[in-house]
Amino acid sequence: MKLLSVAIPCYNSENYMRNCVESLLKGGEDVEIIIVNDGSKDSTAQIADEYAAKYPSIVKAVHKENGGHGSAVNAGIDNATGLYFKVVDSDDWVQEAAYMKILDTLRELIGGEKTIDMFISNFVYEKEGVKRKKVMRYHRVLPQNEIFTWKDVKHFHKGQYILMHSVIFRTKLLRECNLRLPEKTFYVDNIFVFEPLPFVKNMYYLDVNFYRYYIGREDQSVNEQVMISRLDQQILVNKLMVDFYVAHKQMFSGNRKLGKYMFNYLEIITTVSSVLAIRSETEENLEKKKELWDYIKHSDRFLHF
């Protein structure tokens, strides 16, 4: 069995996916790289097949009809055989030294008495044209180089959240919690991190700058104008997170720190939805913002941001 499965969701990724795959190949035989071609119209499929043919014991090419990022992540989970699971977007990459350290640490941990549910590391904002790179670190919040639980977690600062780029989940945990991301929807990476959290007991944090998160393409989903144009999808994700929070409140009612973290995460996602609606300066989107807040109010009378 592989130590780590890495899914690479790809849609028309011919111009940058090689850099991503090459960075992950350095993990060798311990790693399974699942290139998910999500109905691309360029040469993504051929590149995926080329890697699968060249590295048959490491790379798996999965071809499917276009269903969006969430659908591609679902396909990655379905095809994963590794003990742990990571998503790396096709325009991003990983840093080699940090990668080796993570694989070494995972190898050591699987021989221990406790099972690690979530492994956390740092990520770097690789913003085009910016020399000083911003790093998302958790060294003041999470214990380092030891197994810990939610009770050991300190206070997260505003804007400091565990994102898809930060996490490696135990594959079986993702299946046990029935994680299925919605299709044809952007911003589902928030659901990917949010929904497994109540099922996570043991965690491990390594203070290494592993994931390199590229920001710079005009068509990128995190571009503000693109986000405004996709406000409906942002709000859909927001509502799904509200529904999950309300439905699973009993699971973290006795775990104050987990409950607080999930509440704060939901609060920041709602803030993003609201700010995008306001920044659009259209009556239609301001109405959508009002409808979202009404939805939250009626979902749970105790859910006040």
Can you tell me about this structure?
With 305 residues, this protein is of the alpha/beta class. It has helices spanning 17-25, 44-54, 69-79, 96-109, 171-176, 189-194, 224-229, 231-247, 256-280, 283-299, and strands spanning 4-10, 31-38, 59-64, 84-87, 93-94, 118-127, 134-136, 147-148, 167-170, 203-215. Strands 1, 2, 3, 4, 5, 6, 7, 8, 9 and 10 form a ten-stranded mixed beta sheet that branches. The longest helix has 25 residues, at 256-280.
Structural class: alpha/beta
The rounded distance between the terminal residues' Cα atoms is 45 Å
Q: Kindly estimate the percentage of residues that lie in beta strands according to DSSP.
A: 15-25%
Gyration radius over CA: 19 Å
Helix content: 40-55%
The helix tally amounts to: 10
Major sheet: 10 strands, mixed
Shape: globular
Please report the total strand number as a whole number: 10
Helix/strand order, N-terminal first: EHEHEHEEHEEEEHHEHHHH
Brief descriptors of the model:
305 residues, alpha/beta, 10-stranded mixed β-sheet, 10 strands, 40% helix
Task: Please outline the helices and strands.
Layout: E1 4-10, H1 17-25, E2 31-38, H2 44-54, E3 59-64, H3 69-79, E4 84-87, E5 93-94, H4 96-109, E6 118-127, E7 134-136, E8 147-148, E9 167-170, H5 171-176, H6 189-194, E10 203-215, H7 224-229, H8 231-247, H9 256-280, H10 283-299
Parallel strand pairs: 1-2, 1-4, 2-3, 6-10
Antiparallel strand pairs: 4-9, 5-10, 6-7, 6-9, 8-10
